Amino acid sequence: MKRLILVVAMFLAVFVGAGNIDAYAAEPVVVVIDPGHGGSNLGTNYLPIPEKAYTMVVALHMKEQLEKYDGVKVYMTHTEDVDMSLTERAKFAESVGADFLFSLHFNMSLPHNLYGSEVWIPSLGMLYSQGYSVANEFLIQFEEMGLFNRGIKTRIGQYGTDYYGIINQCAIRNIPAVIVEHCHVDNTNDIANIQSENKLKEFGVRDAEAVARYFGLVSKDKTVDYSSYAPLAVPVPAQRVCNDTSAPLYLDAKLVDYDKAGRYLTVTLTSQDDESPLQYYAYSIDNGATWSPYQPWLGNGNVMTVTVNMGFGKKSGIIFKVSNKYDLTTVSNGIKLR
Ligand SMILES: [Zn+2]
Predict the structure, then answer these.
(1) How far is the CA of 87 from the centre of ligand 1 (A)?
(2) d(CA 6, ligand 1 centre) in Å
(3) In a domain, 227, yes or no
(4) CATH code for the domain of 160
(5) What is the DSSP string of 153-198?
(6) Are 25 and 79 part of one and the same domain?
(7) Are residues 200 and 302 in the same domain?
(8) What's the CA-to-centroid distance between 180 and ligand 1, angstroms?
(9) Where are the beta strands (DSSP E) in the chain?
(10) How many helices (H) and strands (E) does the chain have?
(11) Number of domains in the chain
């Protein structure tokens, strides 16, 4: 509850005139790190090593790195490979007076076409603002590692509250909690990031860096000082921020140019999604039976001109698709070469 105390201290500083900042420095920020899954709950087990093993390694490195800072008390929901319900994790956070819970995860998709990092946050009120601001810090760190930024997201469940149990159970207890999906274990774009102890350690160090920046921490040896760092200020939303449930409205593919062999093709793609940004595009030369790997949508808003190498061979129907931040896709019209 450090932030509240900080606000009160600043208030006193203004009105009392000689605010003693040390008054709140004695009250550490309480951070709970939650290694996702554990015990019989393996998490993603696409690889021989299940997700629960990766999340534990990263969590231990994150804790070690974060404890190099003053003014922070770090807990883990569990340090052994045990089953623990999401409610138990939230109750643990409550029992230690958590200011924030960070639930660490690794992702995969079917059919293994997605890549990059994302952070899921609470959908309501101050928890949303806090979640968004800290999520922004995590994604800055992961982008520096070369990972694709899949964005900051909310997800609403059938009861109109947060879909993800750890976020919902923490929200019930008024504790901000975010799910950090570091990268995708089943995609060649991301896989190198989990294949060595050094890379997993880097995730832990980056996670700690994000949290240190968000809370404005100063390292014990005084070499790192984030006390004047300003994390993104996010206004408290008036109502619940819901996820986008509709695909981009359309995708228009317009032929610009192609080589005589019909191998290279330049197309201008125009799409529209008023609720969430466009994220990837792909193309098919067999009318959607198979697709190219997803490419980042780097368009200027809703328009992007792409040149693709379709290879030689028969083309039974050239089409494109675009997906938005919530992985909802829309397919284009067909391209006729002549
Ligand atoms: Zn997970």
Answers:
(1) 16
(2) 33
(3) no
(4) 3.40.630.40
(5) E--B-TTSSBSSHHHHHHHHTT--EEEEEEEETTSTTTGGGGSSHH
(6) yes
(7) no
(8) 9
(9) 29-35, 72-76, 100-107, 117-120, 149-153, 177-184, 250-258, 264-272, 278-284, 295-296, 303-309, 319-324, 329-331
(10) 7, 13
(11) 2
Look at residue 108 and tell me if it is in a domain.
yes
Both 147 and 294 in one domain: the answer is no
Q: What are phi and psi of 211, to 5 degrees?
A: -70, -40
23 CA to centre of ligand 1 in angstroms: 39
Pairwise CA distance, residues 274 & 143, whole Å: 25
HSE-CB at 270 with a 13 A cutoff on CA atoms is: 4
pLDDT tens for 154-167 read 999 999 999 999 99
CATH of the domain at 272: 2.60.40.650
Given a contact cutoff of 8 angstroms between Cβ atoms, the answer to whether 115 and 289 are in contact is: no
* DSSP label of 77: S
The residue with tokens 């101050």 is 126
Domain membership of residue 226 (yes or no) is no
- State which amino acid sits at residue 161: T
pLDDT tens-digit readout, 265-320: 999 999 999 999 999 999 999 999 999 999 999 877 899 999 999 888 788 899 99
State the residue range of the domain holding 287: 250-331
The encoded tokens of residue 250 equal 């359309």
The gap between the terminal CA atoms of the chain, to the nearest Å, is 66
In the reported structure, the alpha carbon of residue 45 is separated from the centroid of ligand 1 by a whole-number distance in angstroms of 10
Q: How far apart, in Å, are the Cα atoms of 295 and each of 190, 219, 266, 292?
A: 13, 39, 15, 8
Spatial distance between the Cα atoms of 312 and 263, rounded to a whole number of angstroms: 6
Does the global pTM surpass 0.85? yes
Same domain (yes/no): 187, 48: yes
If asked whether residues 143 and 285 sit together in one domain, one would say no
209 plus 108 within the same structural domain? yes
Same domain, 325 and 263: yes
